[in-house]
Design goal:
The complex is a heterodimer of chains A (166) and B (173). Chain A is built from no helices and 10 strands. With 166 residues, chain A is mainly β. Chain B has 173 residues and is an all-beta fold. Classes of the chains: A mainly beta (166), B mainly beta (173).
Amino acid sequence: MSTKLHFITSSSATSVSDLSITGCFTAEYDNYKVLLDDIEFSDGDMYFRFMNASGTVTSASYDDAVLLQRSYGGFADNYHTGQTYLGSIGYDNNQQGGGATEINVYNPYSSSLYTFASWSNTGMSSIGTPVRKGIGVLKVAESHTGINFVGGATISNVNARVYGVK
Amino acid sequence: MAGSLVLIDSETVSSGVSSVSLTGIDSTYNVYQVIINSLTADTNSSGIEIRVTKSGSADTTSNYDYASLQLKAISAFADNSATNGDSWDAFNTTGTATGSAFNLTAYLFNFANASEYSFVTFEEATTDNSVDLRGATGGGVHTVASASDGVSIHLSTGGNIDGGEFKLYGLRK
């Protein structure tokens, strides 16, 4: 019996403003799992966006809702419409190496459906861990073939892997 | 992780059906995963509801508990819970507007174990009648100690599911 979770690609970077993974979403899969096991900042949040077949980052029409759970304080409902990105999907101000984010992506390649995502993250700060559960939608019915991770500050280190779910 | 997800059952809906069943759960795997991709409905304000199946038939008895947090892009989040319902109706509504769709990733635990309850954890991302983003994160239990062999998905309105891809996977031990 064939297995249905297939590794597609991985990418990492150091001291960058953003990281693009192009060509990772194709007609081969409808669903994808994206894992980030390294999100490091001096002090910043990570966000993500989708890229179209021309390699252009789509930077409008994102709605999201993110529950922020803090080990060091109260929880918060963070929600937005008409944003330029989705997230936060991770925070760090400690550069201790790591971070843990799982993103499920629905229909990125479809040119007729919106692209949805849901994610879970455990981050790191000097006073405790911020944990996030989020959902998002890109309200553009366009084929997206790549994903772009953008930092709210210079990204010290990032490592991401993309899997297709058949 | 590669090589550990095995497709058990799948359904592609392209015209109206009242429900979709995914079956084939047995003791081969301990944990199963359900992915629903772009479920569309023929009726506005259709809540998505899920039941376990016993020998292929949906169990409609009032033994479903759940607790979830509803996430919304347009307003503060809300707690949502119930006990002894006749389905897991923990999920948001969708409708007929262009762009309205329901997406779900869920994990099923202990379904094949006849001496334990059937458990689920889930996360959902949906656009409703107004194409506003809503979702849920939470879990549920079917409080009957008997084996479940799948799940059945239907709409709260009694309307039809017009589209979507539905898949059931086993997670290799």
